[in-house]
Amino acid sequence: MTNTPGLPENPVFVALDTPDLNQALAWADAVRGHVGGVKTGLEFFAANGADGVKAVVDLGLPVFLDLKFHDIPNTVAGAVRAVAGIGAAVVNVHASGGPAMLDAAREAAETAGGASRPLVIAVTVLTSMDDSDLRAVGQTPPAVEQVVRLAKLSQDHGLDGVVCSPAEIEPIRAACGNDFQLIVPGIRPDWAASGDQKRITTPRQARDRGANMLVVGRPITDADDPAAAAARIAEELSANT
Ligand code: C5P
Fold first, then answer.
1. Tens digit of pLDDT for each residue in 227-240?
2. pTM for the complete prediction?
3. Pocket test for ligand 1, best of 126, 215, 221, 222 (most atoms within 8 A of CB)
4. How far apart are CA 148 and CA 165, in angstroms?
5. 98, 96, 97, 27: which is closest to 63 by C-alpha?
6. Which tens digits make up the pLDDT trace of 154-178?
7. Domain boundaries in the chain?
8. Is 68 a catalytic residue?
9. How far is CA 238 from CA 2, 12, 28, in A?
10. Homologous superfamily of 12-233 in CATH?
């Protein structure tokens, strides 16, 4: 898998899942030498706003701002412009917002970010949705068909990639080829607790299947020594065997 221009060689993005700005900054500072970037999500953003994200960006690590925009095209374009202005390296939107919304998101990132525009990534089907949830919202299982349809749609409208589960890497690669970023959560080193994640892979397995970025939260942030846990993952990823 080729490296993405503008993204680091180390594929690990640490999920800073906390509303506490000081905790997030402490985690990011501790692991900065061992990871490619950090991810801040809705909980962090709701508590700390753009200033909080800016404080993380100012540490110098690439930031994946995981806010999953889903609204009319004009509103999503405005939101993408705003977060591009904070300096996020990666932003995301729901692919189910449709073609015009995807176009608007991509165009907003291009105009706001110039040469250093953020990557715009799509969320396909939330991995928290099972077959009965899908039927409840009018979709026909299996989820993977909708996942691949929305990944193709996102690619056709110029998005840079999708967030997907480890189990979805191979079908999306088959449909979308290698020049499409796959950001994969649900990562557990074999020495870490699985927690509430059900379909997990190790960092090596996910990368070998074709993931470009690995989102890793609790195996690092819940560790007694987050820096050591991040370093161990980096070593496992760079080992030859
Ligand atoms: O602690 P853990 O490694 O499970 O954290 C994974 C991160 O990835 C969390 O921020 C979670 O919200 C996010 N995520 C996920 N599954 C998805 C999409 C995002 O676990 N399908």
1. 999 999 999 999 87
2. 0.94
3. 215
4. 12
5. 27
6. 999 999 999 999 999 999 999 999 9
7. 12-233
8. yes
9. 15, 12, 21
10. Aldolase class I (3.20.20.70)
